[in-house]
Amino acid sequence: MTTPKIVEGVFAVNKPKSISSAQVLRDIQRTFNHSRLFAPWLDIERARRAQESNNQRKRRKHKHLQVKLGHGGTLDPMATGVLIVGVGKGTKYLQNFLACTKTYEASVLFGAATDSYDVLGKVLNKAPVDHISRESVEQALDKFRGSFDQMPPIYSALRMDGKHLYEYAREGEDLPREIEARPVKTESLELREWLPAGYHEYTIPEEGVEHDEKAVAERLLQLGPSSESKDKSTHDPKSPTPRQGAKRGREREDEDGDEAIDTIHHLSKRAETVTAAFMSGALPDRPELHGEAPTPGLQSAASPQVNVENSQFSGPPAAKLSMTVTSGFYVRSLCHDLGKEVGSFGIMSELVRTKQAGFELGRNVIEYEDLCKDEDSWGPQVAQMLFDWQSKLEEKVVRLSETSEDRA
What we know:
Strands 1, 2, 3, 4, 7, 10, 11, 12, 13 and 14 form a ten-stranded mixed beta sheet that branches. The protein is globular. Helices cover 27% and strands 20% of the residues. The chain has eleven helices and 14 strands. A hairpin with a 2-residue loop joins strand 12 and strand 13. The chain is an alpha+beta fold.
């Protein structure tokens, strides 16, 4: 009798919009728990648990038998794209993916600042945008190419004195000390598309913060444009008074392994009501703005076709960026800082992770919707992805062994 093959390893799924990374894992886990593909894994795990002592069983946090899953770097609920998933022993390798470079495509909307640096937040302030042009944005991007220090947003999973920064923010508490800027690096950063005012679907949030909330937020957030860019606009937003006498110290990453790009938004119901207009599943590159024919790729079927000569949209200008960044990089902070650099404000209105390590959209990433279908549809895809990853791992082990022997 042939022994069933145990399938485990690492694969990637295209996370949809308006759903958390944790929920994606729960959905996948429910599907795998009742599948034929992972039945052998569950049988082995069930037999192993049967051999455990009573003390081991009592110490087990999760007593219900399920396929073991983990992820290699969270994506915000509003973001889409590559979410790396570890299965079984594959979860042991997920830490390696947190430190790797990642490629993103993001949209920044100018003219407003929110408490979370994105369109899901509450508006803190607005600024003129008439002076902003494609050329000024191109020039401002130079400041963020290569290595530089970046200030993490207050709505992040970083911890200070054992407490998440976002917990301080949503509870209205002052931070024990200032947040330190952190060294980050962009290996590439390009302006993919310039969207003039009125020729895109992105909109500034309507909800603003209450007076008391705004006072707290202005103590925590940097809202003034950079000193180098003040001459680019007649607008000069007032910067909050720096905290005095605070001992500086380094914040650490979330102890669960969430990387710096991850965020947990405040308790705002906007996340449930944001329209699909600026929450489309991928960043639609609309070359029709430049008189070109649309090209296939990361384009949302729901995105409207814009007629430059007869636009029905209104709002400030926006820009679509593509970037490859190192671990610890906040795209939301880049959007915020870019807005300040051009003498205004900026918020992230869309985000898609197109590549992480060896996983890339359109090449070797399974669609989330496929996992919702019958196992005959997704089973072969997932099995092949896990086998491919296992083969590459074995090849790497062989190469390392051969290198060690040569040195000996």
